[in-house]
Input
Amino acid sequence: MKIYLNGKLVPKEEAKVSVLDHGFLYGDGVFEGVRAYNCVVFKLREHIRRLFESAHSIMLEIPMSEKEMISAVVKTLKANKLKDAYIRIVVSRGEGDLGLDPKKCRGNETVVIIADKISLYPKEIYEKGMAIITVPTIRNLPEALNPQIKSLNYLNNILAKIEAINAGYQEALMLDHLGYVAECTGDNIFVVKREQFYTPPQCMGTLRGITRDTVLEIARKLKIPTHEHVLTRHELYISEECFLTGTAAEIVPVVEVDGRKIGNGKPGKLTKLIMKEFKKLLRKEGVKYTV
Ligand code: PXG
Output
């Protein structure tokens, strides 16, 4: 396995970063998770754009252009001869001293690209659906650490994941500070009511997911009305269908929320339709390469 590290492709064993890297010391950095399907990196340009936006927001200068980052991703996939992959791009503030001041790291930014395979959940989850539970930890306040920034500081989500797992569930439903539905630990959430789609707006403590945007696009093409609207837990409980969207998890039907059965307790009709249409798009929209 070859890892991209600061401009070079090196064997995994040699892909090492400093213990004084502020990504390690403070979670100071940004990342993206991307997938490639049959030699097409799905929505790579959109992921790279979001990476640069996250970096801009935390005043982290990525030492290359968006175009160069796209080439680096493709180079990593080719070096590993991967047609299908999960790609993790990480840019950290780099090596500095033991203080917080990121200025001390200037010019030392670390760029890492890892291309590997993952499947997040067993196949059965996609066929039978998942049960989720609301957890006590709320999503970060946008005024504190905006969830739009895909930062290396994922403790907020990890704490929620721990709470869900401790309760015997695989995924956590996170609320915002007002008690409205925000998102899950690595996925956005949708509900279906009267053949219409509802998902929380991006300003309410949710990441503007690229899979979320893709589902909204597909729905509009299929003439399914979509609403980016605040949602309460009650609206989830009485929904006809529910599903999660994310690059790693893709589209996961949800059949139970906080012990309440959703619809008839099976993946819904429109959820299955969106899963099918999403699959069709994957090999079409993105950056193509050869191995
Ligand atoms: N919300 C959050 C908080 C995320 O981290 C999404 C939504 C979905 O966004 P995209 O653009 O991928 O549709 C994410 C995705 C995982 C994992 O293991 C997920 C993410 C990052 C790292 C790991 O599920 N981000």
